[in-house]
Amino acid sequence: MKNMIKHGLAVVDSPYDESGRKRTVVEKLLLGLTPSQYLLQAFRNPFNWILAAIFAIGIPILLGRFVFGLAWATSGSNDYPWGLFLGFGLFAMVPLSSSGFQLGTACEIFGRHDLEPIERLALLNGLLGYFFAVVYLLADLGQPWRLPYPMVVSFGPAAVLFLVAWHVATYLSVQVAEVSTAFFEWIGFPAGKRGVRRITLGLTVSGIILSTLHQGALGALFTYAPGKVHPLWYSSSFQWLHFFVSSLPGGLCMVITVSTIASKFMGWRADRRFREKLDRCTVSLAKGACMGIATYITIKLIGIAHDNKWSYLDSGWGQWFMLEIILGFMLPLVLMTYGVHTRKVNIVRLGAFATVFGVVLNRVNTAIITFNWKLPEREIPPWREVVISLTIFAIYIVVYRFILYRLPILYKWRQQEEEVPVTETVTVPAAGRREASPVAVASYSNMTKLD
Amino acid sequence: MKRRNFLKACLIGGTTIAMGKTNKGWASGSFEGYPESMGVLVDTTRCIGCRSCEAACNKEQNLPEPDTSFDDKSVFEEPRRPTAKAYTVVNQYEKQKPGGPVYRKVQCNHCNEPACLTSCFVNAYTKTKEGAVIYNSKVCVGCRNCMIACPFNVPGYDYESVTNPVIKKCILCYDTRLKVGKPPACVEICPQEALTFGHRADLIKVAHERIRSNPDRYVDHVYGEKEVGGTSWLYLSGTEFDKIGFDPSLSNDPIISNVKDFLGMVPMVLSIWPALFSGIHLLSKHDAGSEGHDTESKEEDR
């Protein structure tokens, strides 16, 4: 895309093309390219080749799982009922997706309008993360077609999993509504957008409630298995708090990670507002993440002290635990604090990557690696399970990119009214148009008090 | 006078609440199990490892043919666990000890407050008044949360099945026998009378009586009397229970009491958060003034 823009291609960021004609949905889908141009740019992208290779192997195996059953695709063990699909796909994806409710809260509840350039990315990150957690779940469930059962057929309201199911389902619809404003702008349906904006506060507050409960409930699931999860990763009183609090830096750092990747590889898609404000937003998010990590480390220590589990630290498991805490939480805390103080945004980003790693490692540790720690054998996931997990993650990346390329997430969709004078003066150079567009930058110029 | 009454009421109320807090029973009365609950007492000192209980179970529950016959003693080399194809297995312990090997039958213990039941989000499990923990495979989604929750690692999953993989475990022969007052197939066939079927309350008395009259033969503990809130299957042993594969670290509280903290928090979040965050929103909106999100979006949508 970069080359094409260099050669004078105008990116689609308004309902009209250069000659003032209304764009069709197909044109918007093809990013204003002709089909052959579109294929050419997709073909040129080396990352697409990697994805193609993953899909060539992964998709047949993913389908095979539904044809030949779980035993064919997974280790299918009675002692380790949950493998990579849930351990990585569900338990790690969900905390990385808490960004939606956090940025929603910051912008809509606390009035942090300076974070708005990144709000939509955070909302989308939340929606997609949750959605793909459900996809992983569908791959793991023995009878995926019965997924709606806890909603309509048979209720087990005393079960934590019942809460998880309901909260994920309702929170997914909340997130669809939150992200739909961008979609309505893109397809040109302002009434829908107005309708959603009217209930934004309600949506945001329900988002906070559902996320608190849901992130916590995932941790509470393990309180059903006292003695099975290694004591260093288990706390009957605080398990839900450990999961909830670690999801806060997890979600914020995931947004930093995604925005870093997007601005590096999709710079053409971001508008000036996003590019200029990104560093400042990153630092703001990192500050929040630092508070979250510091709290998390504290409550982890309290958890150990509460049950007097210090002696476990002096063992192989203890070293593994320290590695997780030091590499995944303490190091990023130091990096991000240093980065924020010295305004070295790249160091902040490095810290954010490490945090994402730390949160994923914590979930995988709790759900798989330290699960059944008393049993003699450890479970090693078979290759098909790894390939399927990787494939679903690759689909996640493709869908993420597909939406970022099109919907006004990283840029502002120029509205019809603003477009009218521009369409009359066709002489505006196509390449420079985005810069000259009347983006409402002015309203953010006096936000310097908040970085 | 009025104020004095008010103060008095406060004092009485406060004391009552303070006393109530120390008395745990007030909040959620401790559950002692079902009065009519049946059970099985396993005397591991009598078991000779003939595996006829495995064979009887296989026949009664129409389970698939085992890989090796039920006479094959080589299965004792490795400890086994119940699976979707075998609801009960007999394991051998203490092989090198002079007293000879000890055998122990493993199956679902039919807890008074089953972890599988409380963890199931489609309510597939039922504890019947006869004490059996049965399940409804027609609603099972296959999440396998019950396998995570079971403190005895019992439920087996039918991973091989593509169209209908469900949980499989011992149901105390509920459909075919227990419902009509007959003992389970494994108990009926046991040649050594190692298994005794009866009312759970009576079995506890029998077990303690055996320990009392033969203190050298038994460890002074009935496994399952109190573990995780009590189970319908009770065990007597001649060696320490952890030597024959029992988990000695299990608490006497049912598994669900670990989860109660969180479950109690849920309605609090549901009721406090809306007011808390709407309030914060109102506070922060006040000084947002004309540059806020709302004014801007109105301009956009005009």
Structural write-up:
The complex is a heterodimer of chains A (451) and B (302). With 451 residues, chain A is mostly helical. Chain A has a single domain, classed as Formate dehydrogenase/DMSO reductase domain (Formate dehydrogenase/DMSO reductase fold). Helices cover 67% and strands 0% of the residues of chain A. Chain A contains 19 helices and no strands. The longest helix of chain A has 35 residues, at 272-306. The radius of gyration of chain B is 27 Å and the shape is globular. Chain B has a domain at 38-112 and 172-257: Alpha-Beta Plaits (2-Layer Sandwich), CATH 3.30.70. In chain B, 33% of the residues lie in helices and 12% in strands. In chain B, strands 8-1-9 form a three-stranded mixed β-sheet. A two-stranded antiparallel sheet of chain B has the order 2-3. Chain B has a two-stranded antiparallel sheet with strand order 4-5. In chain B, a hairpin with a 5-residue loop joins β4 (125-127) and β5. The N and C termini of chain B lie far apart (65 Å). The model of chain B is unreliable at 16-28 and 295-302 (pLDDT under 50). With 302 residues, chain B is an alpha+beta fold. At the A-B interface, α4, α7, α10, α11 and α12 of A face α3, α4, β6, α7 and α8 of B.
How do the helices and strands line up, and which of them pair or pack?
The complex is a heterodimer of chains A (451) and B (302).
Chain A: H1 2-6, H2 25-29, H3 35-44, H4 46-68, H5 70-73, H6 84-90, H7 99-109, H8 116-140, H9 149-152, H10 160-187, H11 190-198, H12 200-220, H13 239-265, H14 272-306, H15 316-342, H16 345-369, H17 383-406, H18 416-424, H19 433-436
Chain B: H1 2-22, E1 38-43, H2 52-60, E2 89-93, E3 102-106, H3 115-119, E4 125-127, E5 133-135, H4 145-149, E6 156-157, E7 167-168, H5 185-189, E8 195-199, H6 200-213, E9 233-236, H7 256-288, H8 293-301
Parallel strand pairs in B: 1-9
Antiparallel strand pairs in B: 1-8, 2-3, 4-5, 6-7
